[in-house]
Amino acid sequence: MSLLQVDIKSAGYDKEKTIIQDIQFTLEKGELVGLIGPNGAGKSTTIKSILGLLDNLVGTVSYRTDAAYSYIPERPIFYDELTLWEHLDFAASVEGLPDKEYKETANELLTLYNLKDHAHEFPIKYSKGMQQKAMLILAMITNPAFYIIDEPFIGLDPNAMKLFLASIQKERLRGAGILMSTHVLDTAEKVCDRFIIINNGKLMAIGTLEEIRTQCQLPNGSLYDCFHQISEGIQNE
Question: 1-68+150-237 falls under which CATH superfamily?
Answer without folding.
Answer: P-loop containing nucleotide triphosphate hydrolases (3.40.50.300)
